Amino acid sequence: MSFSKQLIKWYLQNKRDLPWRNTTDSYPIWLSEIMLQQTRVAQGMPYFLSFTKTFPTVFDLANAHEEQVLKLWQGLGYYSRARNLHQTAQFIANELNGVFPGNYADLLKLKGVGEYTAAAIASFSYNEAVPVVDGNVFRVLSRYFGIETDIAAASAKKEFSALANELMPKDNPAIFNQAIMEFGALQCVPKSPDCSVCVFNDSCVALQKKKVDVLPVKSKKIKVSTRFFNYLVVEDDLGNTVIQKRTAKGIWHNLYEFPLLETDAEKDFDFVSARIRDDFFSDYSIIGVEEWNSKSIIHKLSHQHLHVKFWKIKVKGIVLKGINAQDLKIYPFPIVIHNFIEAE
């Protein structure tokens, strides 16, 4: 039996029942693909269901306020995906009358839609014969065929796309794309796959050559920086606090946070307390400063590890533009701040 036929047979017997697989409507397929970039299905599913309930059509999403979209996205990470999603929804609703482009080339022109997402929508919605190539596909193909090309190399995508295109049955590209992605997600997993139950264990080159653990080859390492965030949580006589919007480019763009003191290393109480009094709340009479968490919360992002501390500052009088505890929960925050608010 050919690779493709065996793969599709496995898929039909083992596939998960996922809501975006039961439709050819581009809107939920696009939503799911954007959400599942760098996100596992189990983590992304509740967000997908919330979005489709709150925004059942692309017009509903387009008409929403960005803060509502970011609030609903809260905790999913990579917030630029949410901002691009919202802007693309507005473009489709306002410029394309709510109709998604009907082919790979035009889908690729949408903001936030790369080669993989465009291929997924084109094949699942329009049955266009375009192969999807993501981490799952790199892994399955490199192991089965024993390909030692560095997948971080610029030429790798072209090589693997050509191979996937060759294997893909042109009369049903959608099922092949779904099958190879699912096989990588459920069976040919990154670490310690159970090759004893794999349908390809008699023909997989990596298994025969004992290279399952080393394929695919990926040489490029992500450089991770370390940052130290001190969040200053003020409370006035009314119990109100102060927040600010992150407008600079970079992490958490357009999300909210407490006033931030970023330092070059973890600082002690005396240092932070002095900066609070001199640089942040010098206009107020400070009654007390308290370290909320003595040990930093390590919040890991793809390229950054944040060491986060919260400092509670009690001031006399009433702060300018104060927010009460109830209204605070309406705003979109990074998940590390949201968790702090919920714990209070």
Descriptive terms for the model:
single chain, 344 residues, alpha+beta, Endonuclease III, domain 1, Nucleoside Triphosphate Pyrophosphohydrolase, 2 domains, five-stranded mixed beta sheet, elongated
Question: Can you tell me about this structure?
Answer:
GO terms for molecular function: 4 iron, 4 sulfur cluster binding; 8-oxo-7,8-dihydroguanine DNA N-glycosylase activity; adenine/guanine mispair binding; metal ion binding; oxidized purine DNA binding; purine-specific mismatch base pair DNA N-glycosylase activity. Adenine glycosylase active on G-A mispairs. MutY also corrects error-prone DNA synthesis past GO lesions which are due to the oxidatively damaged form of guanine: 7,8-dihydro-8-oxoguanine (8-oxo-dGTP). Pfam families: HHH, HhH-GPD, NUDIX_4. With 344 residues, this protein is α+β, with helices and mostly antiparallel strands. It has 2 domains: 3-208, Endonuclease III, domain 1 (Orthogonal Bundle), CATH 1.10.340.30; 225-343, Nucleoside Triphosphate Pyrophosphohydrolase. It has 15 helices and 7 strands. Helix 9 (135-145) crosses helix 11. The protein starts with a helix and ends with a helix. The mean pLDDT is 94.
Characterize this entry briefly:
By secondary structure, the protein is an alpha+beta fold. 43% of the residues lie in helices and 12% in strands. It contains 15 helices and 7 strands.
